[in-house]
């Protein structure tokens, strides 16, 4: 994962905290537990986890730095209803996101995207039905960001 800053630029919700607050709160995983931030946001850190809570006390973002290198290997962004909206993971700890998880408003998994070529861009998308089963798999074979073929597992 390039940094938590790049994650903030790459598509946070419309109610963005702003670049200054984002850099202050999420630039690395060295914040103090329970630290108050501008606008009554609260940053809580324990071991490898860092959580950002909004003024209403609801979690907005959770980061995990498994190897303690100052870069998050997992980031989960939450909806106002407290359910996850999306997750971005660096599964091989090389500093580049290689797995994206998208969730429906009710918190159930909708789609998983992976970068098979480790380019930092998805090239495979598994679409998950409400029953938890994959019903469609899309592939980008030439790396242009567009679906080239789809499979329909049984």
Give the tally of β-strands.
11
Largest sheet: 11 strands, antiparallel
The rough form would be described as globular
Radius of gyration in whole Å, from Cα? 16 Å
Would you tell me the overall average pLDDT?
Answer: 82
Order of SSEs, N→C?
HHEEEEEEEEEEE
Structural class: mainly beta
Q: Going across the biggest sheet, name each strand in turn.
A: 1-2-3-4-5-6-7-8-9-10-11
Number of helices: 2
Strand content: 35-45%
End-to-end distance = 34 Å
What is the share of helical residues? under 10%
Low-confidence stretches: 1-32
Quick recap:
This protein is mostly beta strands and 154 residues long.
Describe this structure in words.
There is one protein chain. The chain is mostly beta strands and 154 residues long. It has two helices and eleven strands, in the order ααβββββββββββ. Strands 1-2-3-4-5-6-7-8-9-10-11 form an eleven-stranded antiparallel sheet, with no helix packed on it. β9 (124-128) and β10 (134-139) form a beta hairpin. The longest helix has 8 residues, at 19-26. It is globular. Mean pLDDT is 82; it is low at 1-32.
């Amino acid at each position: 994962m390039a940094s938590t800053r790049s994650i903030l630029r790459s598509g946070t919700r419309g109610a963005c905290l702003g670049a200054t607050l984002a850099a202050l709160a999420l630039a690395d995983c060295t914040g103090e537990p329970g630290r108050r931030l501008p606008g009554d946001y609260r940053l809580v850190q324990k071991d490898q986890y860092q959580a950002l809570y909004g003024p209403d006390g609801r979690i907005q973002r959770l980061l995990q730095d498994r190897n303690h290198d100052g870069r998050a290997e997992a980031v989960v962004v939450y909806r106002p209803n407290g359910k996850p909206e999306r997750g971005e993971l660096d599964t091989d700890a090389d500093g580049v996101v290689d797995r994206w998880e998208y969730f429906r408003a009710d918190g159930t998994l909708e789609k998983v995207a992976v970068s098979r070529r480790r380019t930092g861009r998805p090239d495979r998308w598994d679409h998950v039905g409400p029953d938890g089963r994959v019903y469609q798999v899309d592939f980008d074979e030439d790396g242009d960001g567009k679906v080239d073929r789809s499979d329909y597992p049984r």
